Every structure is written in C-alpha cells, then in structure tokens.
Amino acid sequence: MGISIWQLLIVLAIVVLLFGTKKLRSIGTDLGGAIKGFRESLSGDKDAAQAEEEKKLGHSTDDSQRVVDAEVTKKENDKASSG
C-alpha cells in the first residue's frame, strides 16, 4: 500500500493553494542556498584537512606532481635517445 501519483498531485495542489507559487519559490531558493552552503562547508573542511595532512608530511601535491612529471619526461627522453 504505497502512495499513488494521484494522491501526491492532490497534496501538491493543496500546498500550492495554501502557500502560493511565490512563497514556494522563495522557500526553494532558500533551501537550495542552504544546501549549497552546507556542501561548500563540507568540501572546505576536506580541503583544510588535506592541507594540514600535507603540512605534516612536509610536501604538497604540487611537489608530488612535479616529481611524477620529471620521471615521465626522463623516460620519454630515454626512449627518444635510444630509439
């Protein structure tokens, strides 16, 4: 015994009649802004945690990427000179 689509449409129509479309739009905008802010704060916490972890290790991802790039370039140069 689930809720049918008709029951949902009736509830939606009653909500629109009670609040009006402008009020529902502003509620949706406020809710969307709150969710966006929440997600940004979560990603900000992850970025801060990652930066602190890199600080503990004494290197950053940029340094690691430079090492990888240097190794790839060296391998490519070795292949070019031998081939």
Q: Helical stretch count?
A: 3
What portion of the residues fall into strands of 2 or more residues? under 5%
Oligomer: single chain
- Structural Rg: 27 Å
Uncertain stretches of 5 or more adjacent residues: none
Largest sheet: none
Q: H/E series, N to C? A: HHH
Q: Return the structural class.
A: mainly alpha
Total count of strands: 0
Task: Please state the average pLDDT score.
Answer: 82
Through-space gap between termini? 72 Å
Shape: elongated
Helix content: over 70%
Features:
83 residues, mainly alpha, 3 helices
Describe the structure.
The chain is mainly alpha-helical and 83 residues long. Helix content is 89%, strand content 0%. The chain is built from 3 helices and no strands. The chain has helices at 5-19, 21-57, 61-82. It is elongated. The mean pLDDT is 82.
Outline of the structure:
This protein has 83 residues and is mostly helical. The chain has helices at residues 5-19, 21-57, 61-82. It is 89% helix and 0% strand.
Helices and strands in order:
Elements: H1 5-19, H2 21-57, H3 61-82
